[in-house]
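fwd from M.: "can u put these together and see what the complex looks like"

so here's what she sent:
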Amino acid sequence: MKRVPERIEFDGRPTRLVARGLADDRFHVSYDVEGGEATLEVRAGCLQGGGFWFEGADGKRHHVYACGTDSGMMLRIDGTTHILKSTERDAGDQNDDLGDPTRIVAPMTGTLVRLLCKPGDAVDKDQDLAVLSAMKMEHKLPAIAPGRVASIECHEGSTVEAGTVLIRIEIDGDHGA
Amino acid sequence: MKRVPERIEFDGRPTRLVARGLADDRFHVSYDVEGGEATLEVRAGCLQGGGFWFEGADGKRHHVYACGTDSGMMLRIDGTTHILKSTERDAGDQNDDLGDPTRIVAPMTGTLVRLLCKPGDAVDKDQDLAVLSAMKMEHKLPAIAPGRVASIECHEGSTVEAGTVLIRIEIDGDHGA
Amino acid sequence: MTRPAPLFDRILVANRGEIAVRVLRGIRELGTTAIAVCSEADRDALHVRTADEVHVLGPAEPSQSYLAIDKILDAARRSRAQAIHPGYGFLSENPAFARACTEEGFVFIGPTADQMEALGSKRHAKELAQAAGVPCVPGFDGKDEGGDNADEATFVREAARIGFPLLVKASAGGGGRGMRLVHAEKDFVEALRAGQREALQAFGDDSVLLERYVHPARHIEVQIFGDGEHAIALGERECSVQRRHQKVLEESPSPVVDDALRQRLEEAAVALARHVGYRNAGTVEFLVGPDLEFYFLEVNTRLQVEHPVTELVTGLDLVHLQIAIAAGRDLASLVPGHRVLRGHAIEARICAEDAEHGFLPATGPLTICQWPAGPGIRVDTGFDRGSAVSPHYDSMIAKLIVSAPNRAMCLMRLEQALRDTALLGVITNVDFLRRVATHPAFVSGDLRTDFLDVHPECIAHEPAPADALCAAALATVFARGGQTNTTSGGTKGQPSPWDMADAFRIGGAR
Amino acid sequence: MTRPAPLFDRILVANRGEIAVRVLRGIRELGTTAIAVCSEADRDALHVRTADEVHVLGPAEPSQSYLAIDKILDAARRSRAQAIHPGYGFLSENPAFARACTEEGFVFIGPTADQMEALGSKRHAKELAQAAGVPCVPGFDGKDEGGDNADEATFVREAARIGFPLLVKASAGGGGRGMRLVHAEKDFVEALRAGQREALQAFGDDSVLLERYVHPARHIEVQIFGDGEHAIALGERECSVQRRHQKVLEESPSPVVDDALRQRLEEAAVALARHVGYRNAGTVEFLVGPDLEFYFLEVNTRLQVEHPVTELVTGLDLVHLQIAIAAGRDLASLVPGHRVLRGHAIEARICAEDAEHGFLPATGPLTICQWPAGPGIRVDTGFDRGSAVSPHYDSMIAKLIVSAPNRAMCLMRLEQALRDTALLGVITNVDFLRRVATHPAFVSGDLRTDFLDVHPECIAHEPAPADALCAAALATVFARGGQTNTTSGGTKGQPSPWDMADAFRIGGAR
């Protein structure tokens, strides 16, 4: 079970979440917003199955379920789920890999069916580099940015875990990193 | 939440229950039976919502839910609930009151609507002594054995908690305790 | 095309428990804001957790909360509700409440106050039924010539005229409260007084009436709907099996009603509904004798506890129908064509009570609360794990309603569903319900209101099987503290007895 | 009269997940012992916990467990099963399995191996359909004159003849696996090879066929049942909305099928069923063009994933029908009179997948798993809280099936039910399903198999509302560790932040 992070990214900005029980069902809540910190007092309590409700000044109840994940927080509010990325130091490593153009990682556990590139190949953005078979379907893994294949870290037919780096890419105009 | 007792009455006999996890899903179970102790090894595991299953030598799965109560254990096995009375020292006091002919106790929380006897009255077995109103219904409280009303410990119109002694009876031919 | 505009923006539900949950859910489905009220004891109740908005009325005692008209109207004003659904019980059949709602500008989702008043009085209802040509059971309305409650001597005289056994019933009542069966003249006066006292307590009115006891009898009722002009019937429900005059199992169709009898029953019910220009949902109850002759019993001017069986055999949603009619929609647009009755449905009322000990209501926490699921299984409840059955309110925990293509299959489904219902911590009637539902007389459809007197073997509990000892021993590991398993995820893997030392041992020294 | 003797004493279910749970429950209702099998990864799965008896087959990989015919037959022998229900997927359409069951003396609950073989091959099925007078889409069966798989050059030539766009489909397949849509000639060869490879992987047979792509098209299918002699149709299901050729939402009736078209569709399906003397449950799939002309697509010789929508509009239990037919009962005694279609039903397939990222399947634990409940809501699932979605099996977590008197009400109910479904810990398509179900084109019934290409806005997720920040802050208290609330009973009261010192503070130093 992952911890629920207290520092997250919301609307593109890092935000610190603070909540504190007062008395009965009243809670003090604060978080950073544009130009400062918002604080408010709400009523809240548990729902079935690990959820909770809260009620602001307008008396409207919100129904919420939440849990921590590898990369942050899954939050279901009034029937819609949102993923809030953690900005805490130790979180989000694996997830960030998915956006890192220098590393093509397996997005899920599966079998590497086919490699579509070899070391030294020039690759375009969105060019398919490998095919992963998982959950009875084939999934193509594209390049995130244009560059050149630096190394291949896997071989066809092997079973790879989610998060495994499969291919390393040297990004055009970026010979450091 | 009440503890699940390890010493219970089963089929009229006090019985000690012992269970011990071995490895994987195997358990060692023993309990007293007619003429000695039975021991067996079974497989077991959790069900949804706090229940468990177990499987004896015949491979038939039993589905069980259980919890501790004031007087012992409620046990639901294969869709039928049984109440096993605790024989542990500190349990069952209140419950025993319900069978004690010298004390008429409120079987549930409610309002004492009417007293049908007064101190000194001779009472027959099953004679109604008081009327309790609870959960929108009237419930008559009868004498458990013939005797004489020793004292009245409540008054009409009062709210009484489950387990409160309402009337004390001196049982015929038993002038001691 | 997007979803149609809701009929109301905001509806308040003036009730608690399973019916509040069911109505609040129905309201939310319509895109309407669902407003709950609750007593201080119910702040965490399931119906409160189902609502979009909640208003606390007052202390646990119904008179201070769910029966407090002023407090409910105040909550309705504060929440800007446009309409109020009363559920069943509490104020649902109180004309003063219906009238106050209307006067305060809220739409009351139910019949008019006048209809409620007329039909709510058993005496007046009987007159209306007779006027509409509906057959009635011989009886005494409990009133003297001036319209006041008759004196005890008159009651005794009328009782002798009607003959024993007879029933003493609260005029304002319903659901068996304030009802007394009197077998012999010598018991009559005590029963009369008890009935009057219970009537006063339950309804604030000690009026009672007397009625011949048709025997053996079936209790069969017809669901009606009216829009003020037109009225329709939606088949019958048989609710014969009762304990303490409370229904135990209800089903539709009745195993004894064929198409011809159904038509006569529906025609009688609709005649009465039309006679009074009935609006919204109601139920016309009949007593059916062994010759299948039927007698008008009473009208319940509200949604019934057992309305789900009608929903399952008609495919209609009665709460949505109620709301649409209250919004002024006419019946013809809501139920186009003739109702299509299909399959069979049975409802079992799951209550916290000890069947073996006179159906004594029980209170306490639901330590374990596991419901059955699957095709044809519906559970309407206001409770979940950790909820407590409180002495302040009635003892019904849930309604288990099963449906299937035919009665035989419905009974098999019900048996399995009852076995799959695990409620522990408080004594319930779940096993009793199963014994009734699997009793040969019930299975063959031989139902009667004194079913449990004739078949008392349903009441006695089965002895524990030998395997129960092994189960009990394992429970000392698995159910330690009642909550241990939940902590481990409720399901996956095992609790951790083998993580402990080899010497781990629960049973104490040997 | 007591309950009738069961048709079988012991039935084994050779499957996992929601369909195993649903079939095992149906078996138990009949008073029959329900025997589960499972892989080592599924020892604690819900279907295992539903059964009366369980046999572990082998490692997680399907080839070592749910596809291992020998191991399943061995379990059937050990458990003294009389009959085997294959569910869908896995071995359900494998004639060798059906044949082996029969040869070993077990009743196979499904069609005969010969029927499965004939109809399971798309080529052969098309020939049978044509022989039965059912219209077919132009195409190429993928075989050369000798009956072997045609060479690539022949495929290229045939593709040019049929014209683009066209479909490459696995001959042995179903459910969209091994299916490829090719828009232009230049992409054909790569698609052909990928289709052949997937077909080989999924079915152990790389045969594929080509088919004209009717466009825009609806996917409408007819549920059939046969007893070998007679056959009936139980209305249609529209399953047009698909992603990656997997169905997303399925409903009955189709918004575009009127009584006349339904009759033609049912007659075509029954003609084919009668032509082959079809036994047990099957589905005849049709492609329906914008002119409402329909073309035979294929026959699925098993219970479908989406069978519940048919159960809800017919009131029948298709699993019980399957078992009764397998026990030799004739159709006429099981479905007396004509089927009664009533109301509307929609199924939403809830999957662990990321709609916004190409419907990438997701794996992980269901930390929160809360299902909706109430009238007209059915949830068929093999998962519960703490279950993990594993990469070994498909990504479907549950089917949410709602029913209501009409389509408009059904859609409103579905929207609320999807909002009330809380699955966290793994990414699911629940919000995607809601966006589709509430899209104006879906609401107006304007369905087509390329719905998501035409309406890609269904795929994009709504931005988080401002209130989400307050909710997230509270989550640091309420959802700490994900399990804290469960320990406190799941429901009642509060977690205990205020029990801690006044200085209690989650957000770290300021």
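replying to her w this: The longest helix of chain A spans residues 93-97.
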